[in-house]
């Protein structure tokens, strides 16, 4: 019986116990078809797994595994600087918690309530010097948006991502995000296929360039388009006035048989680096993975499932411990590959 949670191992042990039957909290969260989460999706809710065969989830992991880090040591000792400017906010690391919502829908309130989940992500990230992004699902409404409530409580310290609902509703969410002084807002355009939203009478749609332009001009906050998996969408998001894109397949939860995000990232970077902020997520499990994504040209990364486990395991403290683990491993990776600052992280450090 653990009385005081001190280490990441403590956090994950508690999460394993609480998530029995939902997530095995494995050493490698890889979307392999034999994993517990992958057995859930025939007629049952998606849980924490990937859609269908799980190939898209698994491809995120495999795409990152293909790359190896180049150890380079003979030079003066250095202390890596991981500080990162995100829309004018100084963060301790280029690593943020992804917009995840609806953990109570597959776990049940006895595992974690949506209120506690959102608070633990926002405040746990803040305590680690970084930002928690908050998502959107059918249980969220303008009157009761758990994510925005937590961000408001933290004085605006967060990013709000809205599902691609009807234009009017998105604009109202953006407006509320402005009121609580969020750092940025956005939409997960890949949420347009969500059955859960449609089933609960909250329809979601694909969005045209014109519609994204309308959303961008409705707010003075920077707008993020999340769910980019091809150059065409990346260019169109930029054309529509977005300030950032997230290269993401939603953790492999929206379309079966997509490539991994690290597979599509380099081409998008080649086209748009320096013209728009490029963020990526999918399968990032350690600071070593972060370094791979940054050397492929992303500016920062988001962490999804590991943050669910951290918050279920030990709430605010669990998320803080997890983010600090990512930072620690990233610092080690930077030192061993001779990267003093984020600018030194280039494709040269990869095999
Ligand atoms: C349970 C769960 C719920 C999610 N809900 C949302 C959401 O509401 N909005 C969103 O933009 N992405 C959502 N995502 C996707 C994550 O933001 C992120 O893209 C993905 O989890 C990253 O992959 P990783 O889990 O391998 O780190 C969700 C992911 C999971 C696992």
Helix-strand blueprint:
Blueprint: H1 8-18, H2 55-65, E1 84-86, E2 89-91, E3 95-100, H3 103-107, H4 114-127, E4 132-134, H5 146-153, E5 159-162, H6 167-179, E6 184-188, H7 195-199, H8 209-217, E7 223-228, H9 231-239, E8 244-247, H10 261-272, E9 277-281, H11 287-295, E10 300-303, H12 305-336
Parallel strand pairs: 3-4, 3-10, 4-5, 5-6, 6-7, 7-8, 8-9, 9-10
Antiparallel strand pairs: 1-2
Bound molecules: flavin mononucleotide.
Derived structural class: alpha/beta
CATH 4th-level superfamily: Aldolase class I
What is the CATH-assigned architecture?
A: Alpha-Beta Barrel
Number of strands: 10
The unique ligands bound to this protein are:
flavin mononucleotide
Plain-language structure description:
The chain has 351 residues and is an alpha/beta fold. The chain has a single domain, classed as TIM Barrel, CATH 3.20.20.70. 39% of the residues lie in helices and 12% in strands. It has twelve helices and ten strands. It has helices spanning 8-18, 55-65, 103-107, 114-127, 146-153, 167-179, 195-199, 209-217, 231-239, 261-272, 287-295, 305-336; strands at residues 84-86, 89-91, 95-100, 132-134, 159-162, 184-188, 223-228, 244-247, 277-281, 300-303. It has an eight-stranded parallel β-barrel, surrounded by seven helices. A two-stranded antiparallel sheet has the order 1-2. The longest helix has 32 residues, at 305-336. The protein is globular. It starts with 7 loop residues before the first helix and ends in a 15-residue tail after the last helix. The model has no long low-confidence stretch (mean pLDDT 95). The structure holds flavin mononucleotide. Flavin mononucleotide binds at residues 48, 60, 98-102, 135-137, 161, 188, 226, 248, 250-251, 253, 281-284, 302-305, 308.
């Amino acid at each position: 019986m653990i009385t005081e949670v001190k280490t990441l191992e403590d956090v994950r042990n508690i999460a394993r116990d609480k998530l029995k039957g939902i997530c095995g909290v494995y050493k490698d969260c890889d979307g392999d078809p034999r994993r517990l989460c992958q057995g859930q999706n025939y007629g049952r809710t998606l849980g924490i797994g990937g859609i269908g065969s799980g190939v898209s989830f698994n491809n995120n992991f495999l795409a990152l595994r293909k790359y190896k880090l180049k150890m380079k040591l003979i030079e003066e000792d250095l202390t890596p600087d991981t500080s990162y400017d995100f829309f004018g906010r100084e963060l301790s690391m280029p690593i943020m918690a992804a917009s995840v919502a609806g953990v109570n829908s597959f776990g049940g309130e006895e595992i974690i309530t949506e209120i506690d989940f959102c608070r633990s992500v926002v405040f746990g990230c803040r305590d680690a010097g970084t930002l928690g992004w908050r998502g959107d699902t059918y249980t969220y409404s303008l009157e009761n948006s758990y994510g925005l409530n937590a961000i408001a409580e933290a004085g605006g310290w967060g990013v709000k991502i809205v599902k691609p609902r009807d234009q009017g509703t998105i604009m109202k969410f953006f407006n509320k995000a402005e009121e609580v002084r969020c750092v940025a807002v956005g939409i997960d355009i890949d949420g347009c296929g969500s059955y859960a939203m449609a089933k609960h009478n909250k329809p979601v749609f694909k969005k045209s360039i014109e519609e994204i332009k309308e959303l961008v001009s409705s707010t003075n906050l920077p707008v993020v388009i999340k769910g980019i998996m091809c150059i065409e969408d990346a260019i169109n998001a930029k054309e529509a006035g977005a300030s950032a894109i997230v290269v993401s397949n939603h953790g492999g939860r929206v379309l079966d048989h997509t490539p991994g995000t690290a597979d599509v990232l380099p081409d998008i970077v080649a086209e748009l680096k320096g013209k728009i902020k490029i963020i990526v997520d999918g399968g990032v499990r350690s600071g070593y993975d972060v370094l791979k994504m940054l050397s492929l040209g992303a500016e920062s990364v988001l962490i999804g499932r590991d943050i669910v486990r951290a918050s279920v395991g030990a709430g605010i403290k669990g998320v803080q411990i997890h983010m600090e683990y990512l930072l620690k491993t990233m610092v080690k990776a930077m030192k061993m590959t001779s990267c003093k600052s984020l600018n030194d992280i280039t494709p040269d450090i990869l095999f």
